[in-house]
Amino acid sequence: MKKIISNKLDREKGITLIALIITIIILIILATITIGVLVSDNGIYKQSMDSKVETEIAKEKEIIELSKMSAISDDKDNKLVEDTLREALENQVGDKKKVTLEANENTFIVTFKDSRRKYLIDNVGEIKEYENVDHLHVGEYVNYTIDNVTEPYKLKVLNSEGEGEVVSQTAQSISQYKNFKWQIFNIDKNTGNIDLIADKMTTQYIHVKSCYGYNNAVRVLNDICEKQYSNTALGIKARSICLDDIENKFSEQGKSKAASKRNYIKKLEGGYSYFPAICVYENGYGIDTEDLKTNGLNVSDRGDGLEIDPNLYLRANSFLKVRNTFIGGEGIREDYVDDGSFDLLFKYTGDSQIYWLASRFVSVGETDTRCWYGIYSIGNGYILNRGFLWWSSGGYVKQISCKLRPIVTIPNKMLNNKCTKDENGVWQLKINN
Fold first, then answer.
1. Strand 107-112 to 117-121 pairing
2. What domain range includes position 272?
3. Burial class (CB in 10 A: 0-12, 13-18, 19+), 389
4. Are residues 273 and 388 in the same domain?
5. How does pLDDT run across 202-234, given as a tens digit for each residue?
6. What average pLDDT does the segment 41-61 reach?
7. Which of 86, 164, 198, 287 places its Cα 20 to 30 Å from the Cα of 105?
8. Residue 430 covered by a domain
């Protein structure tokens, strides 16, 4: 009898031990799930912290916005000035030791000392979080990818049926080039933007000719790049490289040379005063007036929505006054800042290795009886005037054929100091915040 009772107790102890073990296992599983819910990448704790940070950022941006508005209203010219902005910030924060202001040309960097966050007020007054980009260098590769585009970009012949704009007397079908790599070309700490340039030019030529080439090419070159080399998921739009990109890389010596070339002005009369229709809207032209336009299109502006026939040219009633805008010539290293961009621009040689700059020019010299209209290009170590398309006596030269070289601009938060390089030394874009 005692043996039977003992066996029964042993069995009950065994069952109790198993139940305890199962209970412990269940508790461990529940604890793991609970901890995961709390502290995982999408957990409650992280969501709570993210929400707290977002609230703080919104509050800091509000302080800057109110300070900006106050500073502008206090300035006699309604401009954003460093001293008045600093005073307004200190008044909003309530303690001048908790906020600092750094001025850079037309932009400002605001730092909140408690949170250590920085914000950029850019040259149009937009407020954005400032990311440090001191770790980046011109020439480094970035893993930017383009949309897959299967439809070619169509260009048609003047007065022909069908889709597309006219830049030459050749119908063209431009396909996407898919073998680009992308390098850092410019790091703008004032705007918070980083420009990436394609490491090579396309293999297909874009043919441009005559006054309709001058009128339309800047818009068309940019449009082709936007449609074929953007990344819509990231909100990044591509464009063609242009003269503005080149001039941003000029040293003081380069800027001085460019300014001296733009000093020359010529007055043309009679049969030498023809001009492409877009010149009505461009800076540097005086059509039947001594006053040159100064509030119109710059050489790299697209000219969208203008009330002109983009395929036409016109003639001045009495005279045409023009300012020379061609600043090209041999690429001299000392004319450029020493950041590696010179080698990215002028690394190609050979007549077939020339790419367009999406910028117009008019070239006129002291002994010229007419001026020449064209589109900039780069090749063989030169910023070229090879893009002569038409002249002011009403004729055209030959059809010019060059390739494309796209650029994309990305916000610095996608390449901030939390980004890493892969095993090949290529920077990996930070896609998610």
1. antiparallel
2. 141-415
3. buried
4. yes
5. 999 999 988 889 999 999 999 999 999 999 999
6. 74
7. 198
8. no
The type of residue at 244 is: D
Confirm whether 242 is domain-assigned: yes
Q: Name residue 302's amino acid.
A: R
Both 114 and 210 in one domain: the answer is no
DSSP 8-state secondary structure symbol assigned to residue 176: P
323 and 193 together in one domain: yes
Residue 160 in tokens: 């022909």
Alpha-carbon distance of 170 to 320, in angstroms, equals: 30
- Please write the tens of the pLDDT for every residue from 232-259: 999 999 999 999 999 999 999 999 999 9
Q: Are residues 219 and 90 in the same domain?
A: no
DSSP 209-270: -HHHHHHHHHHHHHHHHHHHH-BGGGTB-EEE--HHHHHTTB-HHHHHHHHHHTT-EEEEEG
284 and 364 belong to one structural domain: yes
Residues 34, 45: Cα–Cα separation, whole Å = 11
Residue 8 domain-assigned (yes or no) = no
**CB of 120 closer than 8 Å to CB of 102:** no
Tens-place pLDDT, residues 153-175? 999 887 766 677 888 888 899 99
Q: Parallel, antiparallel, or unpaired: how do β-strands 400-402 and 206-208 relate?
A: antiparallel
Alpha-carbon radius of gyration of the chain:
31
Residues 62 and 206 in one domain: no
Determine the 3-state secondary structure of 79 from DSSP. Answer: coil
DSSP-based three-state secondary structure for 51: helix
State the pLDDT at residue 106: 76
- Among 129, 153, 178, where does a domain finish? 129
Q: Answer yes or no: do 334 and 202 share one domain.
A: yes
Would you give the distance in Å from CA 317 to the centre of its chain? Answer: 41
The answer as to whether 311 is a domain residue is yes
User: Which residue is listed with tokens 């990044």?
Assistant: 236
234: Cβ–Cβ under 8 A, 6 or more apart, which residues?
A: 410, 414, 429, 431
SS3 content of the chain, % helix, strand, coil (to 5): 35, 25, 40
329-330 vs 313-315, strand pairing mode: unpaired
More confident residue, 167 or 2: 167
- Residues 171 and 250 placed together within one structural domain of the fold: yes
Total count of domains within the chain: 2
